Amino acid sequence: MLNExxxxxxxxxxxxxxxxxxxxxRKELSSLALRxxxxxxxxxxxxLHKTEVGGVFLDILDVNALEEKYDLIKHRxxxxxxxxxxxxxxxxxxxxxxxEDKDFGLSIMFGMGGVMAELYNDVSxxxxxxxxxxxxxxxxxxxADVFFKGFRGMKADRESVVGLLLKISDMAQEMSDSxxxxxxxxxxxxxxxxxxxDAKLLIKEGSRMSMRG
Length: 213
Description:
The chain is an alpha+beta fold.
C-alpha cells in the first residue's frame, strides 16, 4: 500500500482535486499555511484503516490542539509521518473505487460514499476502460443521482464527476501492471467540482512502480 500523501500526489499529477495537505515537522506546526479547522492523520503505508487504530483527529481548531494531536499520533506510531489537512465543508459524499476482478480484469465503481458506503452498498460498476457515456450512466444508476438533480438545497456537479471517473479509468489503465485496488472515499461533491478527502491505493505484491504510475 502507498501512504495517503503518495496517493494524493498521484491524483494531483493527473489533475484530480484533493484536500490541501502537508506533512509538517513538529517545529513547522506553529506556522502552517493551512486554514483551521484541520484534520490530523497518521500517514503510513502500513496502516490501511487509520480511524480504527486511533490515527485520525478531526476539527482541530487551533495550534495548541494541533500540537497535542500531532504528538499523540507520533507517540502511537513512532515510525509514521503525520498528515495535516484543512477540513472540507460538508456536502454529499461519493465513493469511487477500482478493483481487479479475476474474470473481468480492472473494474471501476461509483456510488454513495462516506460512512454509509458499506451500509447502502449502492454502487455501479463498469469494466475499464470506460467511455464518457459509461461514466454518465454510472452517475445515474445509484442513489447519488438525486444530488446531481438537486436535493434539499444541495446540488452536485455531474460533469466534473464524469470527468473524474474518466481520469481514474485512465490512471488505472496506465498502472494496470501494478495496481491491485484503489479506493477514494469520501469524495465530497460540490455544486462546482468535487474534492477527494481520503484515498487508498494497493499495488500488486512484488510489483514496482514509479510515483507517477
